[in-house]
Amino acid sequence: MKMVKVIGSVTSTIKDDCLKGVKLLFVQAVDIDLTERNDFYIAIDTVGLGEGELGLMVIGSTAKLTDITKGRNVDAALVAKVERIDLKNINHIV
Amino acid sequence: MKMVKVIGSVTSTIKDDCLKGVKLLFVQAVDIDLTERNDFYIAIDTVGLGEGELGLMVIGSTAKLTDITKGRNVDAALVAKVERIDLKNINHIV
Amino acid sequence: MKMVKVIGSVTSTIKDDCLKGVKLLFVQAVDIDLTERNDFYIAIDTVGLGEGELGLMVIGSTAKLTDITKGRNVDAALVAKVERIDLKNINHIV
Amino acid sequence: MKMVKVIGSVTSTIKDDCLKGVKLLFVQAVDIDLTERNDFYIAIDTVGLGEGELGLMVIGSTAKLTDITKGRNVDAALVAKVERIDLKNINHIV
Amino acid sequence: MKMVKVIGSVTSTIKDDCLKGVKLLFVQAVDIDLTERNDFYIAIDTVGLGEGELGLMVIGSTAKLTDITKGRNVDAALVAKVERIDLKNINHIV
What 3-state class would DSSP assign to B3? Predict the structure, then answer.
């Protein structure tokens, strides 16, 4: 999984049927020190993340295995909220 | 999904049977501020996008799950038209 | 799909049984203005491309879905010959 | 597989059911001379790796094939502990 | 497929059951002129490659389709030995 930050959302009314009724979040990959990378995705939220919050994103066919994304043609899903990061010398509570 | 802009199309008469009857669009990845990235794909359109319009692209095996791409050997499909982007301090209507 | 140019071929007699009887082409990714990228693949040809010709390449599990690659363990296949590219201000006949 | 080093862990209580009861490790890709790359993942540990230890990581749908990750929607799993690296002129015991 | 050079091997006794009894080779991606790229993988050998030899590597779910890797959770396998490369103006016998 990749650690990403929610930075916004995307609205689309013209879309494949499989995407109806899901929230499309704009996310940005972040480094371990939370530096933002120039790397963006649109992902389906399955855990209720808000703007500025950190989550874990699965990509590829795995993204279709959550209760919310089952049977939908998505290739990126947020599957966990990051609440705490423990590194060698640093504990982040986020 | 990745956000991409339609920049053109590709014509091919000599191709695998599975690609017959679909439109092959040339798309370019864009950043959240719509800056163009040096990153190009040929994708199947499933939502009727025109040149210059923004869409969401799924890649990999997921691309074969739309009504239009089912059973076709494609690895990139446009599955939504981007109509509005909401970021922290900016709302784009596109 | 990615647009690639055929630049050569690879010969291998010691190989997995699944690769027997297919042509292994050396291809290079190209930009929309046909600039060559430093990005190379060995792909199975399914449409009869010759050296210097442009094709569309599928990668990943999708590459195993053509008539020629079915059941073969390949992760890159050429599935269309690019004959014409239409961009905003430019028409290439290739 | 990619060689990675365990650098920490992530805590998440709000997550997809499939992620319950597994340890989420923060890992960093390393080069053959063990130089750290600016490339981070969150992976499920299946072999009991501790901080600072080297492991082999599988990504994509393959990550769902271990006894521990079966049926879980994860796209990165640590499947081996690296104990020794033999290169042309160097033997590392790690 | 990607062209890679065998540069060494990895020893692991603590590993997922699926990896028992296979050789884990350290490989490095190479360009068409055989320049080494800063891009490393650990791959399962299915064709008996020795150090310094060139091979073709499949990645992703395709890597699980050879006789040797069937049912094993690997995402990179060497499936052919490269014996000769024919480019426009150059023939390499390797």
Answer: strand
| B88 to chain C, closest Cα gap in Å | 32
Cα–Cα distance for residue pair D85/E1, rounded to 1 Å? 25
Q: Which of A38, A40, A35 is nearest to A6 (CA)?
A: A40
A65 and B CB contact within 8 Å:
no
∠A51-A52-A57 over CA atoms, to 5°?
85
Domains and CATH numbers, chain E: 2-93 (2.40.50.220)
List, as own/partner pairs, every contact residues E8-11 make where C-beta atoms lie below 8 angstroms and the sequence separation is at least 24, other chains included.
E8/D32, E8/D85, E8/D86, E8/D87, E8/D88, E8/E51, E9/D85, E9/D86, E10/D3, E10/D56, E10/D80, E10/D82, E10/D84, E10/D85, E10/D86, E10/E42, E11/D82, E11/D83, E11/D84, E11/D85, E11/D86
The predicted-structure confidence for C3-40, as pLDDT tens digits, reads as follows 999 999 999 999 988 888 889 999 999 998 899 999 99
Question: Positive or negative, the Cα torsion across E69, E75, E77, E79?
Answer: positive
| DSSP H/E element including A11 | strand A2-11
B34-91 per-position pLDDT tens digit: 999 999 999 999 999 999 999 999 998 888 888 888 878 889 999 999 999 999 766 6
Shortest CA gap C82–chain E (Å): 20
Bridge partner residues of B93 (DSSP):
B84
Contact assessment for residue B65 and residue B76, using Cβ atoms and an 8 Å cutoff: no
Q: Which chains touch A (3 or more CB pairs under 8 A)?
A: B, D
Task: In whole angstroms, give the CA distance from residue E4 to residue E54.
Answer: 6
ipTM of this complex: 0.89
DSSP 3-state assignment of D17? helix
A38 touching B (Cβ < 8 Å): yes
